[in-house]
Amino acid sequence: MNPRPSYEEMGTFYPASFYESFDKEHEYHEQRYSIEAEIVETAAGHKGRLLDVGCANGDFPRYMMKRGWNVEGVEVADSSKAITDFKVWRQEFGSVKIPDDTYDAVTAWAVLEHVHQPKRYFAKAVHVLKPGGVFVFLVTNFRSLSSWALFREDVPRHLYFFTESTVRRYLAEVGLELVSADYSDKVYAMRPVNWLRYFLEARLRGRPFTWQDAEFSRATYLARKRWAKTPWTTAFFLFTHPHFVFDRLLLPAYELVQMGRRTYGIATYVARKPVRRI
Q: Is the whole-model pTM more than 0.90?
């Protein structure tokens, strides 16, 4: 993203309410942690030492601790909750003083798109991982319609945008080997909302698809009309905007197409540090 907020300015976009949402959606996040744990443990092949980069309030490392892992975290946000039950490095990951060959797994769930120098994170991961250790990370996918056309990226918090080719280049430059790339919504979703409207407006009519178009929904329509949300106003909206109905009805099928074509908005990568050979 250009121009982008400075490192010092980024804190204003992460107020305490940003981290309080983890408590408000506790059940959802617990399910997510379970899926993330399965991904990590399948990739690592055993339990050991784990470092979670961007650990927020510490919930995912805490979940892994219950499963038998020895955990630590990295979190730079002052507005996140204090963590006292395991070690947390309160500084940017690229500058932490951690000995080489320390961890069996390093994780970064929806973190790398938020940082100013992602290559430093890849480079640090390869140093702190043990030979054979895994770096598991999730980022948005700039090949997706959601990312480059439907305004679904979290700007200005998202500073970098990734494709599999850029991820492969980062990994190759620091000496990590790509194990797998999963394009699905099993950890996070990035739904291509208004995809049909985009194709109708931009592809068929040749009209630019704007931020105002992306905001289009029943709620925004009623707000612009200054109408209350009632069964009658909702029925009127749906009757006069049939493409909205088809957009939402066909959305799950279009998501499956994206996943099959590896153009879904989210990708989860597993990379491994090569084992030294004598």
A: yes
The one-character DSSP state at 53 is E
- Give the model confidence (pLDDT) of 132-157 as tens digits: 999 999 999 999 999 999 999 999 99
Give Cα separations from 41 to 53, 141, 217 (angstroms): 17, 24, 40
Residue 277, number of CB atoms within 10 A of its CB: 5
Pairwise CA distance, residues 103 & 44, whole Å = 11
Q: Is 54 helix (H, G, I), strand (E, B) or coil?
A: coil
Strands (E), the chain: 49-53, 70-74, 87-89, 103-109, 129-140, 177-182, 266-272
The SS3 of residue 23 is: helix
* Domains of the chain, earliest start first: 9-183+262-272 (3.40.50.150), 195-259 (no CATH)
d(Cα 215, Cα 92) in Å, to the nearest integer? 34
